[in-house]
């Protein structure tokens, strides 16, 4: 959710020119396909979380959001697309941006449907697309997604309410960060709407409840239960981590502080409570990962005994393949 807070400042200077239009998805290409293990029937379309991106920087110094994951899927036969939406904005605005890119993927591939995968705020983003165009979505996979909100968002807005004078400077700073993330991808920041306050409101408990009332498919009706596995022909899956500090050398260990905001007994990934991440068929909700380990960040650092995220995504693609998706 907050990946850009860790990297955007240092990588934004490495911006490169992109040949893609603002709303265009990026097809992931590799030089050699080694198997058909991940060759799904429908394209795999990935949606990043809050403060996310496709790639920051150039080919030499750049960092992919889905670090090493998407090329591995392509090498194993998958038709993979990465999408780019506003780093900070509401679930609805991000969803509309993603919907345009889904339409483009369908047009370019000739496929009738896509499999959508979203990390963090990417979860509500893909759920929006499934809600407005269910006939074009085969499956949703939510990874570490705050489907019932994140207490971190509530905490931030509570500080704002207690000290209203802080709102304008904080919003200005985060909106600037949002623009920097877009610029670092070689794009014009003015081409994307930036609204950090709308993004925060979307991920509060109240904002999530309002969103869930409009887009309820796959969301558990109990506090920590299973959601529907299939509705309107769409299959729903989720997985998440529930550990904060997994490698002391990893900068994302700083999420220990946000973890304490959520629950001082743990059971969250540093930004999202385990129960909030449950959606549809929960594949696993206790990976030894934190919020950034879920996308193999930062730069693949994690506990040596933790499952390899690259392998987990490959297995999910195979699961979708065996499901006929």
TrEMBL record:
This is Triacylglycerol lipase. Pfam families: Abhydrolase_1. Gene3D superfamilies: alpha/beta hydrolase. Keywords: Signal. Residues 42-225 form the AB hydrolase-1 domain. Residues 1-21 form the signal peptide. InterPro entries: AB_hydrolase_1, AB_hydrolase_fold. The keyword GTP-binding does not apply. It comes from the Bacteria.
């Amino acid at each position: 959710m907050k990946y850009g807070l860790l990297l955007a400042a240092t990588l934004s200077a490495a911006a490169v020119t992109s040949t893609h239009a603002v709303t265009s998805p990026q097809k992931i290409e590799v030089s050699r396909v080694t198997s058909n293990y991940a060759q799904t029937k429908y394209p795999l379309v990935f949606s990043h979380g809050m403060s996310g991106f496709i790639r920051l920087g150039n080919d030499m110094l750049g960092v992919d959001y889905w670090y090493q994951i998407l090329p591995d899927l392509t090498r194993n036969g998958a038709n993979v697309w990465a999408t780019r939406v506003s780093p900070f904005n509401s679930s609805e605005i991000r969803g509309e941006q993603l919907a345009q890119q889904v339409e483009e993927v369908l047009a370019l591939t000739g496929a009738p449907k896509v499999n959508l995968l979203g990390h963090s705020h990417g979860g509500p983003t893909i759920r929006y697309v499934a809600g407005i165009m269910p006939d074009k979505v085969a499956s949703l996979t939510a990874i570490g997604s705050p489907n019932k909100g994140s207490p971190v968002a509530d905490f931030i807005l509570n500080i704002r309410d207690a000290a209203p004078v802080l709102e304008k400077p904080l919003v200005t700073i985060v909106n600037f960060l949002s623009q920097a993330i877009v610029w670092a991808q070689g794009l014009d920041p003015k081409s994307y709407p930036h609204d950090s306050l709308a993004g925060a409101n979307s991920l509060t408990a109240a904002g999530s409840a309002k969103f869930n009332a409009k887009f309820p498919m796959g969301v558990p009706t109990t506090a920590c239960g299973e959601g529907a596995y299939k509705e309107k022909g769409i299959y729903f899956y989720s997985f998440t981590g529930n550990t904060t500090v997994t490698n002391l050398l990893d900068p994302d260990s700083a999420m220990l502080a946000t973890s304490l905001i959520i629950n001082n007994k743990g059971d969250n990934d540093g930004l999202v409570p385990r129960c909030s991440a449950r959606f549809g068929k929960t594949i696993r909700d206790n990976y030894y990962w934190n919020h950034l380990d879920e996308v193999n960040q930062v730069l693949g650092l994690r506990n040596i005994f933790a499952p390899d995220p690259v392998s987990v995504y490959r297995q999910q693609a195979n699961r979708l393949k065996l499901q006929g998706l």
